[in-house]
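Purpose: get a first structural picture of the assembly so the mutagenesis plan has something to point at.
Setup: two entries, given in the order below. No constraints added.
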Amino acid sequence: MRQTHSRQTILGLGAGLAVLLAAHLAVAATPAAAPLIQVTARPTKLLYGVREPITATVTVKNVSPAAQNVTVSAALEGEIDEPVGKVQEKAISVGTGMTVVAEFKWPASPKRYGHAFKAEVKVDGGPVIKAEDYFNVCDHYWNVALIAAEGFLWQQFDGFKPRSDMKWADDTIAGWRREYYNGFEKFFWAPDDFLELTPDKEIWWSGQARYLETKTGLRTLIARGHDEGLKAVTYAKLTGGGPTGAEMARRHPEWIWQSGGVLAVDRNAKQLAEWDITTSNHWGGWVAVNYNMNDPKVVDIGIKELGDSASLFGWDGARWDGNFDVAREVYNLDGKRVETLTAEQADERDAQNMRRTKEAITRRHPLFVYGYNWTQGNWAQSMATNPKESTELCRGGGLIMNEYINQAEGVQHPLHRWEVYGRSVADDVEAIKKLGGYYGPILGSPDSADGRYQNVFAYAAGAHPYYHHHWGAFMTRYGTFCWDDALVRRHDAEKLATVTGNAWWQHWVFERPLDAKHRQLILHLINPPAKPTVGEGKKKDDLPAPLHNVGVVLLPAALDGWTFKRATRLSPEPMLREEVAFKAEGDGIHLTIPEVAIWNVLVIDLGK
Amino acid sequence: MKHIQNLTLAFTVAAIALFAGSAGAAAKAEKNGDTIILQNDVVKLVIDLKKGARVAEFTYQPFGENIVYPVESSGGLLMDHVWEQTWPGEFLNRAYTGEVVNAGPASASARVWTVGVAPTIKGLRFERVMTLHDGDRALYATVSIVNTTEEGRVTGYWSQNNYWFGGRKEGLSWARPAVRGIDRLGLDAKGEPWFGGAWYYVDDATAGWNGSYSKDLKRGMMCLMDYNDLWRIYDNTSALTTEWMYDRVAIPAGKTWTTAITIIPVAGITGFTHGSLNAIANFEATPAADGLTIEHQVARGAVPLKDVTLKTRVWGLKTQWTAQVPDVKLAELKETADSRTVKATNLGAMPAGIEVTLTGTDPDGKVVTEVYGDYLGGAEGKNNDPFSMKPYLAFNRPAKQKVFLKPDAFTYKPNPEPQVLYLRGLWTSIFGVDAALTNAFPKVTIKDGWLDASPVGLTFSYFPPDYPSLLSFDLMVLGNVPAAPFDLVGQEMLKDYLSVGGNALILGGDQAFGQAQFTNEALIAMLPVELGQAYNWRKITGDGTLKVVDASHAVAAGVNFGRKDKVFYSHLCTPRPGAKVIVAAGDHPLLVLGTTPKGGRIACVLATPFGESEGTDTAFWDSPAWRTLMQNTVQWLIKR
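Result (C-alpha cells, whole complex):
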C-alpha cells in the first residue's frame, strides 16, 4: 500500500527494509496543516485470475477532532497509465477517531499483469489525499511470480505445541504481502516428499529436515493466502525420506532402487529411531529414500499423491527438487541388469515421466503450475545434456529454477563476473521462454549492492527471483514490461539505438507488440556494478555513483515505419514513473535520461 | 599462446622480486602474530593460524605465483578434516595454536595444533608439523592425532588442498593412480569439466599419490601420502579441490596415530603418471607414422637420484606383441622435469600397456627401482572389455601393510551381568532382539553403535576404540551393518574378539552377510555360513513358512511356529560343515549356529526385515514363536 503526495514522484523503498511505510500514512497537500484523515488503499488480492472480479478497499481514519465528510474516488490503472474500468465514487462520513472502510468492486480486468488501485479522498472543504497500491492479473502463476520460501513454521508453535489461534497464519501472510510476495513455496513439509503428501495424522515430523507440521496449520495458511491472492506451491521430489520413507522401503523393497543388493536408503539409523521423539531442542535430519523411477507403477504413486495433496490442501503448484528421473542401469535382486538406457533414452524417459505427471495432475487441477530445480551452470548445458527433458519441463509454462547461481561469489563459479552473469541470465531466460518456460534463479537478494544487481539482471532479462527479491511493489506494478509473454528480445541493439556513457543495455532490448496500432520498444538501462565480480558489493554503499544525463538516440530502424509517441522511464529505486522529454532530429529521436541510479526501464510507445 | 607467454613473464618478474632478498638464503621460519612464514630459496609459504592453520599462500619460484586461491573461496593447503564430519567440519576456520619449532637454517619447521570437539574426536589433539629444508622444494608435513583422553577414539582423517595454476581454473587437471590406469579429470580451456573415467572419487588407488597440474603452464603439484593408510582419493572439478581420505583408525588412550604428507611442486611437467619420494614422472604417448612417440618427463622427488635409467615396455593387450623402445639415461634427476623423447617401434594393434621401470642410485649408493605405467587405448577406447566388463589391463593394488594399535595379549572374561554391544543398522529393531535381551536378562546393559552416513562414508556412532572396551562385551549384535564402518581395523578387532571366546549375533538385511562385503579372511572363516557375494537376498517365491529343523537344540525349546508364520525375503547363505541349522523357512536355512575354537558362539539369522503380509500370513516379526526363538538364541549365545 502506498501513499502519494499531490506530485507524481513516489518515494521508493527497497525490499528488505523493515521500515516500509507500515502506517501508509497520507499527508495533507498543505504540509503545514495537521492531517485530518489517514487513507490507505488496498486491493483485496495481490494476484487476480483473468476472469476474477477485482475488489479493493479504501480505509479512511479520522484523526481530527471533528467528524469529516469525505468523497472517496477509486480507480484502476494498467499498463503505464491506462485506466481500467470506470472510476467509482462513494461519499462517506467518518466520526472523530473512527475508521470507515469503503469497498469497491469491478468486473474482471481486460488487461493483464500489473495494475494500480488508486484512491483519492477529498475532505469536504479540505485537502485531497491520495493512496494507491498494486496487484497483478494473470492466470499462470509463474508468469508474475514473486515467491517466498517457507520452511519450519516456528510461528505456529509454542514449545512444539500448536497454538490454538491462527493469528500466526494471518501475520505470516501479512508479512509476505508487505514485501509483495504473491506466493510461497512450502518445502520439507511432507512425511515423505514422494509418496506421503496426504497425511492421516494431524501432527507429524516431516521426512526431510524434520519440521513439525500440522494438517490444520497448512490448510489454514494456504486458505488465508488464497484469500489475499497468494499462491501456494508445494515442494516435490523423486526422493522420500524419514521414518515414513524407510518403512515403505522395508515393506516394498521392490519400489526402491538398489545397487549390489543394497537399497538406496540412507543409513542414518539413529536419526530414524529418534525422528518422531519431540525433545526440547530441535534437530534436523535427512535420511533419503530413493524410489525407483524406472518403474512406471512407482512413478504413478508419486503422481497420484501430488494430485491428492492438491485436493486436500489446495496447492496451486509444485516445485521439484529432483525430477522423476530414471537411472541409466537397473538391476534386479538376482543381480541381473534388467534395464540399460543410453543417455538419450534416459532423457526421453525422463521427459515422459514429467509429461505424464503434468497431464495427470492438470486433468484434476487445470491451473496447477510446475517448477523444477534444474539448471546449474547455464541453460545451454542443460539442453546439451538433457535436451528432451529440458524441453518438456519448459512446455506449458514450467519454471526452471537455478540454485547454483546463488553461489556466484565463489571464484570457481562460471558467472563470477557481472558482465558474464548479466548476459548469461538474459540468454537463458530467452532460451527458456522460447520453449514456453519461465526462469526462477534462487537469489539471496541481500540488502547490498550485490543483492540489488542480482535482481536487476533477473528482472531485466524477464526472470523471477526465487525466494527473495527487491522492489516487490515496483515489480508488481510494472512487471508487465519484464514479464509479458509477448516480449521478444532483440539482438540488433546497435541498429536500434545508441546510448551515451557507460550504461549497460545492449543485451536487454525487447519488443512488445500490443495491437495493430501500438507496439513498444523496451530498453533496460543498467548502471554497471561498481566492481567487476560478484561478492565485492557486500554493502549498500558499494552501489556505483548514479549516471546522469544518459543520452539515448532511437535510430530509424527502431521506429521501422512506426511513429514515436512517448518515452517513459520506470525506476525501482528511487521508485518513479516519469515521461522523458524528447527531440526529433535527423538521425533519430533524442532522449535524455536525467539519472540512472541503478536501473531504469525505458518504455517507448510507438503508434501507427 | 602469446597471452600465456606474457603471463609467464609477468609471474617470473614477480617471483624474482619475491625471492630477491633470499637468493642463496637457507631455510627460515618466522612467526608474525597469527601467521607463520616458512621459506627457503625456492619456496615460501604462509600458514594462517586463524583459518585452520592452512597454508594460505604457497609460492614456488619457478612458478612465479602463489598458487593458493583466495581463502574466502576456501583456498588453502593441508586443511584438516575428519570424514565423519561433513564439510566444512569443525577445523576449517578454527583458530589453531602454532609455534616455530625450527627457525633454520638447515630446516624450517612449524607446529600447529588444536583439539577436537565433536564426539568421535573429543579430546584428540590434531597436530601438524610442516617443514621446509634448505635446498629442497618439497613441503614435508606430519599429521599426528594424539589421544590425550582416558578412552579410545575412532576417527578417519581427511586432507583437503585447494589451489590452482595461473590464477585460473581453466586448464586445471588431476591424475590419480587406479586399477584401470592413471585416472584423469580436469577443466578445459573454457572451464568445462572433462572426465577420463572415474568421476571425482578413486576408491581403488594403487599407490599413495594424487597429482594436479596445468598442461599449458607445465606446472604441477604432487601430493604424496602413505598408501597403507589411504582410503580414497577425491578431486573435484567444480569446487577445484585436491583431497584424500584415510582409513579409519582406532587410537587407544594415550596413543598417537601419525601419517606423513609430502607436497612437491614440479615445473616442466604436463601431467603425472607416477609419484613417490624417489621420483615424479609423466609420459605422453603420441601415435606416429612409424610407431609411438613417448616423451618421458622425470623430476626429482625428495631423494636425489643419480645414474637414472628408464626402461620402457610397450606391449599388446588383445594381440600379443612387444615393441622395441630405447632406454633413457639421465645423470641425475633435477627439480624441474627433464624431458626425453623415445620412439617405440614394431607396434601391433591397440590397446597396449606401457610400463616404465626407473632405476637410480640414492645418496647412500643403494639402487632404487620404481615401476609405473598406464593403459593406452587408441581407437579401442577405454580400459574396459565390453563383454566381460573387466579392464584389459589391471594395475595391481598392493596389499596394505596395516599396523593396528593392539595390546600384546588379550582375553575375554564373561561379566556378572551381560554387556551387549548392538551395532544398529536400518530396520534391525524388527527382529525383536532388544525385547529378547531384556526378557532373558533383566539387568542387561546394551550399548548402541548406530550406523550413520556422511557424504564420505559410513560410520558407527560407537565402536570400541580399544581392546579393553572391545572385550568388555559378552555379545556383539550386528544388526544389518556392512563392513565399511568397521573399516579394516574394526574387522580385525571383531575377529580378535571372536577368536578369544566372544559371541556374535548377525541379523539379516540388505547390508548383511554377502551384502556386507567383509574382507578379513580370518573373520569370514569363523562364521557358520558362507557369506556369499552381493545380491545375496531374495524374495522367497515358494514356501516361506517357518519351521523348526532341530527340535533337540536348546534354542528351539518351546518354539512352535504357526502354520502361517512366514519369512518373505531371506539370504542365500550356505551353512558350513559343522554348523547347526535350527530353523528354516521352507527350504531356506533361517537360523544357523556355530562355535569358535575358544568357545565363542555365533548365531546367523538369515531372515531379512523386508516385505509385508498379504492376506492372512503372519510376518515372522509378529509371531510369538519368533520372540521365543530370539530369547532362546541370546541365552544360548551368552551361555546362560
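Chain B has three domains: 2-267, 278-380, 419-637.
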